Amino acid sequence: MRLNRFDPSSINVRGGGGGGFPGGAGGGIGCGTVVIALIAALVFGVDPTSMLGGMQQSGPTSAQQGDGSAQSVEELCTQNAYATEACNALQSLDQTWQPEFQRAGIAFRQPTLNFYTGGTRSGCGSASSSMGPFYCPADEGIYIDTSFYDQMARQLGAGGDFARYYVMAHEYGHHIQNLTGVASQIRSAQNQNPQAANQLQVRMELQADCYAGVWAGKNRNLIEPGDLEEGMTAASAIGDDALTGGRVSAENFTHGTSAQRMEALRAGIQSADDTVCDRYVQIR
């Protein structure tokens, strides 16, 4: 995808903590956790049940930033090729979604892209790079350890720039849900009906996939041959059924099956219409 180079003055980017995992669970169930926590189960041998349970029970804590905050946006965004891609995507996502919010009469705020290595603290608690990228509504931050993209390509067979843009656009989708109030509605519904918590989370994740597709659809003039195939491969690779290999029951799925994720991404791309994504989350 031929995205324009980022303008350091137009995006919010920070450097997070580095080093080892700082302990504790990552953000709560409403924090749009990861591409999926179960990646850790396959790649790192972590018990998926205990990881998902820990994230659901964790509450927001104050954010803490590491020494990287002293770096300029230019330095952070050019630390490696993946970081530059992420910053290019962030600018494109901001430029795509802000006018949509203006037309809808909803206040828009840009999220902050946080780069970190190994582990960090967010407004939703501690996080490890083994969790993958995630969004924290408490500080409106997208958190990425860019080494995840190498793991995504090696372990899941999901490489290519559009696959990485899809990850960024998905996490941005959680930011949209936070600004529109969908995220808080989901959390409220989960609290009222804990037995349906996972099913509600799946609906929220599929909507974020759909929003990722809408972004791509609105910028289809920048799409290159092979991009859509890379996106579908990534969506399929990170479906709950693909990641767990059948070791976790459908009742414990938190992000949707491969087929569901591909369908949601495709619906967004083909329509380029965010209202199409309303089908996934309809709270009464």
Automatic annotation (TrEMBL):
Keyword tags: Membrane, Transmembrane, Transmembrane helix
Stored PROSITE patterns: PROKAR_LIPOPROTEIN
Annotated Pfam families: Zn_peptidase (PF04228)
Name assigned to this protein: Putative neutral zinc metallopeptidase
Entry GO CC: membrane
Organism of origin: Tsuneonella dongtanensis
InterPro entries: Uncharacterised_pept_Zn_put (IPR007343)
Membrane-spanning intervals of the chain: 20-46
Topology relative to the membrane: Single-pass membrane protein
Location of the protein in the cell: Membrane
